Amino acid sequence: MKKWNAEPTCLPETIDTELKKFAERRITMETTNLEIIDRLLSWDKSIEPHTHPDFGAFWQGFTDAAGGWEAPVDRAVFGGVLANCFAYAFAAGYCCALQRLIPGLPRDTVACFCITEAGGGHPRAIQSRLAHLGAAANQECAFTLNGKKKYITCAAEADLFLVAASEGRRDDGRNSIRMIKVDAGAPGICIQPM
Question: Which residues of 139-173 are buried (b: 16+ CB within 10 A; e: fewer)?
């Protein structure tokens, strides 16, 4: 880990050196990251955003049209092209970013992170509790989850929640956090607009 010199006289030189190093690096993109841009630039027809009456209509059109793109970044760019408002473009990019982060997420799923609580998003602020109930023979482990989350992007449209919950304190006193998948239709889920 690099330690920065805290003396004000040395700080500008250090930043300048780091910026020069960064500028000298060659950043290469994978071919798949450029494919969508090449395709969009080579189209001989104009690309006009469709008017979608609601998020469900946009999402259906987006998943149908972007289904052939393998890379999440390509689907995200395509979602921005299809969107007729910033919220839909953001939602497409957000869900594609989650699919990149968690490759097992289905492409047609609206998923969202559920991290922030009343006390904030820091691990020590997470009070939602995950309790292990054990497992019967030949079955997966069962858990109960209790808690409240705030500021969940796409919550009302979500098919799946990715929830940060505490399993209690570790030996060092830190909060032991686990991310779990929760189906939006699971019993006990209640979404309230803020």
Answer: eeeebebebebeebbbbebbbbbbbbbbeeeeeee
* Predicted model pTM: 0.72
Question: What whole-number distance in Å separates Cα of residue 156 and Cα of residue 8?
Answer: 48
pLDDT tops 60 at residue 102: yes
Taking only the tens place, the pLDDT of each residue in 69-100 is: 888 988 998 898 888 899 999 999 999 999 99
Q: Which contacts qualify for 45-53: CB closer than 8 Å, 24 or more apart?
A: 47/81, 49/81, 49/82, 49/83, 49/84, 50/82, 50/84, 51/84, 52/83, 52/84, 52/88
Burial degree of 107 (CB within 10 A; 0-12, 13-18, 19+): middle
The residues, ordered by sequence, that sit 6+ positions from 191 with a Cβ below 8 Å of its Cβ are 152, 155, 156
- For 48-76, give the secondary structure using H, E and C: CCCCCCCHHHHHHHHHHHHCCCCCHHHHH
